[in-house]
Amino acid sequence: MICLRKVAIIGVGNSKFGIRNDVNVAELTFEAVKPSFEDAGLAAKDIEFVALGSAGAGAWYEELLPAVVAAEYCGLTKAGLVRCEAACASGSAAFQTAYSVIASGQAEIAMVLGVEKMREIDSLTAMEWIGRAGYYFWEFHNFGLTFPAYYALYANAHMAKFGTTEEDLALVAVKNHKYAIMNPLAHLQNKITVDDVLNSMVIASPLKLFDCCPMTDGAASLILASEEKVKQLDVDTPIWVAGIGCSSGTANLSKRPDYVGLEASVLAAQRAYKTAGISPEQIDVAEVHDCFTIAEIMAYEDLGFCSKGEGAKMIREGQTEIGGKIPVNVDGGLKAKGHPIGATGCSMIYELTKQLRGEAVEKGRQVQLKNYIALAHNIGGTGHYCYVTILRR
Amino acid sequence: MICLRKVAIIGVGNSKFGIRNDVNVAELTFEAVKPSFEDAGLAAKDIEFVALGSAGAGAWYEELLPAVVAAEYCGLTKAGLVRCEAACASGSAAFQTAYSVIASGQAEIAMVLGVEKMREIDSLTAMEWIGRAGYYFWEFHNFGLTFPAYYALYANAHMAKFGTTEEDLALVAVKNHKYAIMNPLAHLQNKITVDDVLNSMVIASPLKLFDCCPMTDGAASLILASEEKVKQLDVDTPIWVAGIGCSSGTANLSKRPDYVGLEASVLAAQRAYKTAGISPEQIDVAEVHDCFTIAEIMAYEDLGFCSKGEGAKMIREGQTEIGGKIPVNVDGGLKAKGHPIGATGCSMIYELTKQLRGEAVEKGRQVQLKNYIALAHNIGGTGHYCYVTILRR
């Protein structure tokens, strides 16, 4: 039996992404919360439950209890509260938790926050912390793998098996920078060419500097409500949660069956499609987890936007640009909008809500809506976690 | 509208609590997972979703992604996965998340894990980390408050307002040590007297060493199932989740209305009682958050076991011992069973499940069951978070 209590997104907000040394973690959160309240026409007192996604508490920023500090700053004290961590998918995990609390009848209105401050510490220390987002005991500590190296293993395998080239990877970066320029919230605002990517510093071969997303500060806020509350509030354009699929992957990369795709993505997507009762062809617009360019190409395949091994063809043919078969990361993606770890999942849903409402028009980034269905794909670690969230207008 | 999909606990496990330098975080988790599988008659493949409560990843133990590492070690890879953090209430937060995923129809069987390894690092560093579990920016960094000092503020206020004495606080420790001796899983196994407590080293006046819980390593595991699955599996004695209430409190202690109780406890309890449709008088046995002795006395009052200011009388009269009005922490509590932060909430529910099933008899700690209702009260920080969970046979 499935409990059919429907849940909708009724308010969204997103802070400016970038290097935000001008604010602390609570102030940064508020920058996303304020517009989400205005968007929903609600106030802090209306929120019964808050789930905050953040991964780096005590690591790349100092507050060990960011949820309580941010909640108090935003006037949310007395609401139920939890911090969710699923590495870089923390925002999506928080989304599922708040969704479930409403869907199970424990609350009528809940808030999902995602926030991360990654630029308070020096970059070498930050890199060490992020390197732990695998199997610290074996892979970081004993083999010295950093995070780009994890994905470089996948890039090399994908290139060897399917003939994907460094130019194909570069095209992903070029596309996502192109859209970031059209997104005032994005961290990186520079136009780049394939040659710029190919000539940038090698980080972990074949990945170069411009194949990697930046370390970004940022926050996003989403307000969710039950179907009854949506009716009662007479919400203009509620965006419904059609299905969530999640999966974990092995902590040990050595236990993976292959290195050309992420099993957790495939499983999470299958589960989400099944719950939503849709197939990939029906999706109008997607946000996928492009922490490195290879990750976006693997996502096309793992999510069923094309067959396995055909991901590079998608980007070469422009199928994931606006006007193509399925526009992907038209807000700039992690690659250029930026990747504040805990905020990313929420920021994806922020963008998709705007797209499904038709509110990306003024930015010149509006995709054409046919089925009014959108998909967010958020990875934690190197497929250690995956959340796929399907939304429907 | 409340969605009435019922959820039950069908399997429980608890590791030995103590200084566990013999195991890593994954191995420690497995010590709780294995008996929970045996208890439920299930295997890893049956688990669709896992929520793990742990607060100190990257702080007092090194793995930054304990959920993926522990899940893989226990064979749970491919299940949906999230780590929940609510400071010392992380285990209860994970419980609510897994409960909600089942109650909303997203899974039939889920697992809740709580784990913490606190003894890998030196005690001064550990104390600094735990001191951050307030408002780090203001209270730890600028005023130098450590965690016992937060609770000492409350103890002093309670003594000043209600005449609670240091002997009353000591009686809580004496009671909880008494029961810990009867619990082979407990960390501290020594009998203590009121004089032992009064003569122990002052940590933060009026709290002395024996007023404080130890820093403990430990894990607990709970398997939850939907009502349909409980029927299908023909579970002997399912223990039903009757209601969960949660609340947050201000990060700033300076913003609290008073220092004689925790507002988050009062709110969470009210919400849990309302959902479960019960009153405090109906509770047969309770686990409350006694990180410091004063915390247990305040909990009696905040949970409505007595009126405000009457908590000390409860302990003086032995009303919270087995045979008294409402037995509390008869497994030794945080004070003597130990307080592995992320595991505590799950371990409370482990104990209550055993009690409600009547399985604490062989340990001599079985309480008399009248209404077959039990309550777990789990605080994060100094009332920054509170979760109250009501169970019913």
Explain what the structure shows.
- The structure is a homodimer of 393-residue chains.
- Chain A is globular, with a radius of gyration of 19 Å.
- The first copy, chain A, contains 14 helices and eleven strands.
- The first copy, chain A, has helices spanning 25-40, 66-73, 90-103, 123-131, 136-140, 147-162, 166-181, 194-198, 227-233, 263-276, 293-302, 311-316, 333-336, 341-357, and strands at residues 7-14, 49-53, 80-85, 109-116, 202-204, 207-208, 218-226, 239-248, 285-287, 373-380, 385-392.
- Chain A is α/β, with parallel strands linked by helices and 393 residues long.
- The first copy, chain A, has one domain (7-121, 214-392): Thiolase/Chalcone synthase (Peroxisomal Thiolase, Chain A, domain 1, 3-Layer(aba) Sandwich).
- Chains A and B meet through helix 2, strand 3, helix 3, strand 8 and helix 10 of A and helix 2, strand 3, helix 3, strand 8 and helix 10 of B.
- Strand 3 (80-85) of chain A pairs antiparallel with strand 3 (80-85) of chain B.
User: What structural category characterises the helix and strand content of chain A?
Assistant: alpha/beta
Largest sheet of chain A: 9 strands, mixed
**What is the 3D shape of chain A?**
globular
Q: How far is the N terminus from the C terminus of chain A?
A: 24 Å
Strand order of the largest sheet of chain A: 3-2-4-7-1-8-11-10-9
Rg of chain A computed from alpha carbons, rounded to a whole number of angstroms: 19 Å
The CATH topology label of chain A is Peroxisomal Thiolase, Chain A, domain 1
CATH level 1 name of chain A: Alpha Beta
CATH superfamily of chain A: Thiolase/Chalcone synthase
